[in-house]
Amino acid sequence: MSTVDLILSRRSIRKYENKDISEEILKQILETGRQAPSAINRQPIRFVVVNDHGMLKNLCDNLFTGFVKYAPLVIVGCADTKSLLTGKWAVVDATIAMQNMVIAAWSLGIGSCWIGACNEKKVKEFLSIPNKWKVVAVITFGYPAEQPKQRKKKPFDKMFSFNSF
After folding, report:
1. b/e string for 113-141 if b means 16 or more Cβ within 10 A?
2. What are residue 101's phi and psi, to 5 degrees?
3. What is the distance between the alpha carbons of residues 124 and 134, in angstroms, rounded to a whole number?
4. Which residues contact 74 (CB under 8 A, 6 or more apart)?
5. Do residues 110 and 141 touch, judged by C-beta distance below 8 A?
6. What is the pTM of this model?
7. Looking at the chain, which runs of residues are DSSP E strands?
8. Using one digit for the tens of pLDDT, what is the confidence trace for 1-16?
9. What is the bridge-based pairing of β-strands 45-50 and 111-115?
10. 147 vs 165: CA distance, rounded Å
11. What is the distance of C-alpha 138 from the center of its chain?
């Protein structure tokens, strides 16, 4: 499968098989995040990998993210928005790294779901994330137990224009 086909086939997965991700595959996924570009290569990012099943049950327990407790793995992406010179780009840097991990995971047969709406204060307290760090997103990872269909997207001309807005 080409890289473009891989990206186009990726779906958000909210149901996972009861199967852990091997350390070898996890390291590959994490390495793609580590190798992501960042402004001036400052890398004002940090990731908390949560694979303790007991912790996962308590990480995100609201109506929209209740499925988190069934994922074998979660990566919480954080950005140092106070970083000297590049703090204003830290969220973008973290996002690029997390997208690398999402695509790499899909190429390895691992599904994921990007969660932007979480109780940041609770997540930071639960994972001992220092105040200066912003939680950018929580991403679940696991072997898919579902195959969602492509969701409807805006028409091309409603998203792209050339040479002016």
Report:
1. bebeebebeebbebbebeeebbbbbbbbb
2. -65, -40
3. 9
4. 49, 50, 51, 56, 59, 68, 138, 139, 140, 141
5. yes
6. 0.93
7. 45-50, 73-80, 111-115, 133-142
8. 899 999 999 999 999 9
9. unpaired
10. 36
11. 6
